[in-house]
Amino acid sequence: MKLKSLSLLLMLTLSSTSALAVTCPPNAGELPSWANSDRRSAITEFVTEITNPNSPNFVATKDRIAVFDNDGTLWSEQPMYYQLVFTLEQIKGLASKHPEWKTQTPFKWVLEDDVESLMKADHYALLELLQATHSGLTVEAFQQIVHSWVTKSKHQRFDRSYIDMTYQPMKEMLSYLKANGFTNYIVSGGGSDFMRAWTEQAYGIPAENVIGSSFGYDVVKVGADTVIVKNGELVSNNDKQEKVANIQRVIGKKPILAVGNSDGDHAMLQWSTSQNNPSMAMIVHHTDSDREWQYDRDSSIGRLDKALNESKQKDNWHLIDMKNDWCTVYGASSTSK
């Protein structure tokens, strides 16, 4: 299917911002975009308990670590991961400098809008596209390109910039946790340098608190200056068990709160709640086809199956029902800088 045809089909078959799926009374104070549900109560009760010095479940500020997946947890991820959308658009923008791409796969598929062939290809094809668009640049130059794209390019279904495809309830949760002494981290399969270009603006999470997939770096001398240039060597594919390993490697502490949306986060949720200290896991369940998308077990993107089963078996695992727990999905449009 052609990319333009796919986009048109999605726009025709999926409504955009229709009437709210749930009516929410205004909430005073924290988490105003959350309905008065068990999930909202789970967040506030957990935070109240672990921040109370007189509670047996008190956790010192230095140990209040919270980790969040990004794709499908803090911003949307349909109909394809947004870093992939960025990559495809970059390939088209660079095509004039690479006439050989017209006959070389996977570049040929991108230039011909052959999404079907691209989606059927193995992960090496995607890696080749990422290497072509994510390497050979200084980190600063790459992040300037990403920041411009994420703040100016528009999602075709919602006509919102990608930085505005972030979830308002989750941003409120991040702010609420920070106000109560938590240190928030993003632990995502997305690229570290891709996310670091905009996560502080979107979520208030600084670059040093972003853990993602990554390519290697070359330290290069340019005249009197030393610069870091991204190369095409895949160093870490930050997914599943690799998320746990990278949390230990970078943070060095087990989180007491972990939030994800798919089986790619399953190991992180299990590990974070496997401890004697108070802990909690939450899963964003995509149940709202009107205001966002509805998917779980059968989705090729953000598949939620095993973690969905486990969430129904553990008291300290909570399934966030997007349709019924969120009064709004996306907040007001931001002002691009």
From TrEMBL:
Signal peptide annotation: 1-21
Keywords: Signal
InterPro entries: HAD-like_SerB (IPR050582), HAD-like_sf (IPR036412), HAD_sf (IPR023214)
Keyword Signal: yes
Pfam families, sorted: HAD
Top-rank taxon: Bacteria
CDD domains the UniProt entry points to: HAD_like
UniProt cross-references to PANTHER family, sorted A to Z: PHOSPHOSERINE PHOSPHATASE (PTHR43344)
Record protein name field: Nonspecific acid phosphatase, putative
